[in-house]
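Can't paste images in this forum, so I'm doing it all in text. The chain is below; anyone willing to post the predicted structure tokens underneath?
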Amino acid sequence: MKIATYNVNGVNGRLPVLLRWLAEEQPDVVCLQELKAPQEKFPQQAIIDAGYNAIWHGQKSWNGVAILARGMEIQEVSRGLPGDDEDTQSRYIEAVVNGILIGGLYLPNGNPAPGPKFDYKLSWFERLHKHAARLVELDIPVILTGDFNVMPTEQDVYKPERWVDDALFRPETRDAFHKLIAQGWTDAIRKLYPTETIYTFWDYFRNAYGRDAGLRIDHFLLNPKIADRLKSAGVDRHVRGWEKTSDHAPVWIELAEK
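Text version of the structure:
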């Protein structure tokens, strides 16, 4: 079973790229972030025509998350991260697909830091900690995946000295990610590639993709009930080189059957 996460940076504007990638790679499940589309503007028919069912949590202009499944039922569990009834940003969706509980998330960027946006990032992380602490202990397979907007270590960022004051790399952010991992989650990419330089995002500016000046900010976290089923993982970095593409590349894992 192949599961992917992809920050599409606008599902309608990048729809040709998304559909091309789906046709070429045919992942079984896909979590999307940054739909940048209200609920009624999600391209459901195009996704259906590509062979996928979908649930989504849209928002006008910003944010937005979705889960797609190829020829499989999606049983929605919840939308929105628990813990703040006043938070209207569309950043979390949770569903069961093929016996696996999947939480698709788009964690806040947090810049500029310090400031209100950084405070929101850290408070969202605290809510994620509380929710994830329950999920990690479940007696079923659970995956948390998406754009975490965190480079966990210096290994995950090109020229880390240039990022020390950025919200994605500040000590508070990295500490929050490591606190999450310490609950018992497995970072799938680092489990299989502990020492390799692997990026999932390249800025549009300064020829970042051409220079391979990237960041690893899109992650797969696996709870103990599914971690031992991890077979392979990777980044479809060539997709970042396509015309009119997202600044992220799709990231995927492959799981052994039970």
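The longest strand covers residues 100-106. The first helix runs from residue 15 to 25.
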